[in-house]
Amino acid sequence: xxxxxxxxxxxxxxxxxxxxxxxxxxxxxxxxxxxxxxxxxxxxxxxxxxxxxxxxxxxxxxxxxxxxxxxxxxxxxxxxxxxxxxxxxxxxxxxxxxxxxxxxxxxxxxxxxxxxxxxxxxxxxxxxxxxxxxxxxxxxxxxxxxxxxxxxxxxxxxxxxxxxxxxxxxxxxxxxxxxxxxxxxxxxxxxxxxxxxxxxxxxxxxxxxxxxxxxxxxxxxxxxxxxxxxxxxxxxxxxxxxxxxxxxxxxxxxxxxxxxxxxxxxxxxxxxxxxxxxxxxxxxxxxxxxxxxxxxxxxxxxxxxxxxxxxxxxxxxxxxxxxxxxxxxxxxxxxxxxxxxxxxxxxxxxxxxxxxxxxxxxxxxxxxxxxxxxxxxxxxxxxxxxxxxxxxxxxxxxxxxxxxxxxxxxxxxxxxxxxxxxxxxxxxxxxxxxxx
Length: 436
What we know:
Elements: H1 23-72, H2 76-90, E1 93-98, E2 103-105, E3 116-120, E4 124-129, H3 138-177, H4 193-242, H5 248-275, E5 282-285, H6 286-296, E6 304-305, E7 311-314, H7 316-333, E8 337-345, E9 348-355, H8 381-392, E10 396-401, E11 409-416
Parallel strand pairs: 6-8
Antiparallel strand pairs: 1-2, 1-4, 3-4, 5-7, 8-9, 9-11, 10-11
């Protein structure tokens, strides 16, 4: 079983972390309940409507019998003939009573448990035994049953159609969770609705996870390969130290190797912070940040060109790493740093790194582009990291030739003055970034 796959057992609860009832079954059950409830409601409404019509008809029958019996009350033969006709033709039992409540004509047929009293002035009153209310017609019951069956079938098809995209999303999510990062949501036809939005979001998440894992693998492979050379040289220098042959030049070389490894590890840590978005937003004095970057690289402070104070919100460690990478690039590949400018430009803050070199193309900002031909050629991690730090702070990095015929190139690092994408709310003035 792959790591992260759901574990299923034989218990009645089914698969751990997954409900037994599917969305299709739940939708169909609710549709069926709604259909049956609607059918019952329609039947009750028809029954109530039929009962009202029956009551209205009974009032008319009462008025009819009251008038007819009033006309023949004093004629026994006609009175009995009318009683027999009511029982025979209409199925209505009738009993006649005088004003004192004495029986004048008894009711024909079986005894009636419920009778209606109808006054027949001035002679007395009569009691009617009406027929029972008619039940719902059999044809209506069959029609309701047929409607329930048809609607249940349509509900099953609708539930299957509605749940199909979600079942596909579940399968893709399970595949991604089990390590298949190539799994993607693919809908038939043009995607619509919330399921399409969820599918596109899931695809973007999978693309991002795949890109992060690929970049981390490439970074680890590149840094691991790059660390082998300085580590081998450090071991050689340590062997010389054991033999007592370590002079000042060898000590300086050892320090350079340690600084090189420290730089690679610092870039790896900075890149990891960007990958996991663990950025720390602070209110920064960017002129002081630039001055500290020059000091760490033992560069003259006079090369800093900042005519006015500049402040912004950002991650001090990452911005310090970006400046250090740009300064190191100018020193190593740009024939030396000429100027480090810091200025505000509307809603942005611009760092300008001028050198004396011939410049380079925008492809140098892509990761793993090697430059230089020395013992430690650059992997291109530094400039690629600068671009990612700029993006994390709502900015961009670019390179261009200096104008006016002067030899040299200028790298501009632009960041938002108040970068909203860097995480937490601004805190107090940040301490100087750690040396990475």
